[in-house]
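Example record used in the benchmark description.
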Amino acid sequence: MKERLLIVEDEDTLCESLQRVFIREGYEVDIAESAESAFTCLEKKTYDLIITDMILPGISGIELLKKYREKNPSQKVIIMTAYASLETAVEAIKAGACDFVFKPIVHDDIKLVVRKALKK
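Model output (structure tokens):
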């Protein structure tokens, strides 16, 4: 069975680009444009990995991570952001993110991060 990814990103171009990359890599990929729509996806399916932007409309990617991991503490989550700082990276890791990726996203780099996260 294919591993399932959920990409939570409000920037359409990046979201679609990542979806294409990971489908070519053999993953089943769903997308959500906000944390709220991600929760709808998470009610219907389970995912091996969630890749979420830190800044989303409504609640943030960090809040998505915190709220969802309350119910599913073993859920693997990667946080992406264009607004990187040491504080945000530490906040993401403390909230339970398995990795933190800086934008602009380099496809080869994120593929490697995803493979590592799924092997943990």
